[in-house]
Amino acid sequence: MTTTLRDAVALSERPARPSPVSTTLTFGWRALLKIKHVPEQLFDVLVSPIIFTLMFTYLFGGALAGSTQAYIQFLLPGILVQTILFVTIYTGYTLNTDISKGVFDRFRSLPIWRPSPVVGALLGDTVRYTIASVITITLGLILGFRPDGGVLGVLLGVLLLLVFAFALSWTFIILGLLVRSPNAVMGISMMVLMPLTFASNVFVDPATMPSGLRAFVGVNPVSHLVTAVRGLMAGRPDAAEIVWVLIASVVLTAVLGPIAMRIYRTRT
Amino acid sequence: MSDSLAVEARGLVKHFTSRKSVTKAVDGIDLSITEGSVFGLLGPNGAGKTTVVRMLATLLRPDAGTASVLGHDVVRDADAVRSAVGLTGQYASVDEDLTGTENLLMLARLYGFTPAAAKRRVQGLLEAFDLADAGSRQVKTFSGGMRRRIDLAASLVLSPRVLFLDEPTTGLDPRSRNQVWDIVRVLVDDGATVLLTTQYLDEADQLADRIAVIDHGRTIAEGTASELKRSVGEGAVHLRVAEVGDRARAAEITERVLGAEVTFDSDPHAIAARVPDEGADAVPRLLPALAEAGISVPEFSLGQPSLDEVFLALTGQPLPDDAEPGEATSSEARESTEVSR
């Protein structure tokens, strides 16, 4: 084995340092490989939107909106937002798993553009978001969701949602860098996201809520996002809400991105 | 002088602060490692070995002191250090969900190999490390020895000039351990510099040109294996009695004949004694005296003290010789507490 080892290790020419784009894409490729090897990780992504959609449509639809048909037009964009927001947790979860398994330190010991593992993972997340969106919308169409915005409206709604999801992911990246175990990331994230998605206009019109709660729903970023996505899909884009979501995304990224990368660099 | 040093550290300090206390993981360590040599950092769990390596590999920023690898400062010139260094340890691992091939391909691409060159490189490494057949399997299905070989292969993708191996053989069976040792010898033959941490004396003795014994974040001794042994005493007698019940009597006779204190290790048959200078002439009389007492001694050796004894003499406590990685408790294992293997 000695000679083969010598030959294998010997390097006639050192390759040039790869570009940030190249290393980021390599990490995106890794995320895809992980989905291929561990398809179970998609289980939540697939199952929770199905359960929520079926449950709310048939359990509450008639009571809330007069008919399940009427309710699903209102509910589906909200469910989509909820689903994608929950999927963003996985960004922090997988990052934290990498840290606890030691893979993360291997990456940090490489001479590469420092943010590329994180940015590459975000790229890989796109696949998860896309699968979740397709499942949710397909189920909606089967149940009678007929968006007036048409294909374009639905696509724009999803696109806006993805922009916000990427921005929000930084929160979970920070959490993933700070918290001790992957399960703790999951627990804390759920504790934050549960109230944010339920105390919003995802499931019901807040008009009948008590004034305190209604005020909260009014300022809840999830409500703004839902209203914007709903508008796009219904063919009645609400420019003010769309701008609100875009600004929120930029602010989140501008503030949390550098903080996350700072923690990432100095993490001991 | 310093241009022939692959690794140089002066007064390295790293303290970890938790809610209640400050752990002085590394408390002022100096290192000078000559290019092309193997340097062993020997110490028990929690001595600070891993923390030293993490600082040298740019994963941790020293609280005080300076360190450079091939002349590049580990803080100011971290990227140059990263290009020159390969790293293997429980904290710098491969992705268990991916296959062996995928892991190496990913690293080769991250080091800048073109897709075709990466493929060739990975194929060669897998064959050299006897992993060609296992390459298409997920790493989590690998045996301990295969796992360590893929970790090593991962750190050699770019032919590093300096290789940090953190406890490369902990938990391996003897055959796999020998394979790892062979790999290290080949690399050093080809001019690489290796910094190796270990809690196995045998390993440091076998591989390292120079050894630093560290404990509680400080260097307590440094030198070649034989220098360290000489610092402890002239020589040592090791013997094993056939009957466990004879050990106490044999010890008594040994003490009387040699005029030296006897130590016992975990083997219930074994006795060791350091031979004092004035007792050297008495050694030939020991075997007849034992035979006269009717004690059968199937094994007897006279030689330099083992590093075990060195460690005992330096720290006043024996070196834990078969500690498992999972037993690590102090700051050194802080990062690894979540690691399951």
The tally of domains of chain A stands at 1
- Give the CA-CA distance, first to last residue of chain B: 43 Å
**From the coordinates shown, what is the CATH architecture of the largest domain in chain B?**
3-Layer(aba) Sandwich
**Uncertain residue segments of chain A:** none
- Mean pLDDT across all amino acids of chain B: 85
* Rg of chain A, alpha carbons: 21 Å
Largest sheet of chain B: 6 strands, mixed
**First-last Cα distance of chain A:** 38 Å
What class do helices, strands and sheet pairing of chain B give? alpha/beta
What's the quaternary structure here? heterodimer
Biggest contact: A-B, 41 and 54 residues
Pfam family, one (chain A): ABC2_membrane
Family (chain A): Belongs to the ABC-2 integral membrane protein family.
Keywords (chain A): Antibiotic resistance, Cell membrane, Membrane, Transmembrane, Transmembrane helix, Transport
Protein name (chain A): Transport permease protein
Task: Give a structural overview.
Chain B: This is ABC-2 type transport system ATP-binding protein. The complex is a heterodimer of chains A (268) and B (341). Chain A is an all-alpha fold and 268 residues long. Chain A has helices at residues 2-9, 20-37, 43-65, 68-101, 103-108, 116-143, 150-178, 182-198, 211-219, 221-233, 239-266. Chain A has one domain. The two termini of chain A are 38 Å apart. Chain B is of the alpha/beta class. In chain B, 33% of the residues lie in helices and 25% in strands. Chain B is built from eleven helices and 14 strands. Chain B has helices spanning 49-56, 78-84, 100-110, 115-128, 144-155, 174-189, 201-207, 225-232, 247-258, 283-292, 307-315, and strands at residues 5-17, 22-34, 38-42, 64-69, 72-73, 85-88, 162-166, 193-198, 210-215, 218-223, 235-240, 262-263, 270-275, 299-303. In chain B, the strands form three sheets. In chain B, strands 6-7-8-3-9-10 form a six-stranded mixed β-sheet, with helices on both faces. Chain B has a four-stranded antiparallel β-sheet with strand order 2-1-4-5, covered by helices on one side. Chain B has a four-stranded antiparallel β-sheet with strand order 12-13-11-14, covered by helices on one side. In chain B, helix 3 (100-110) packs across helix 4, helix 8 packs across helix 11 and helix 9 (247-258) runs antiparallel to helix 10. Chains A and B meet through helix 1, helix 2, helix 4 and helix 5 of A and helix 2, helix 3, helix 4 and helix 6 of B.
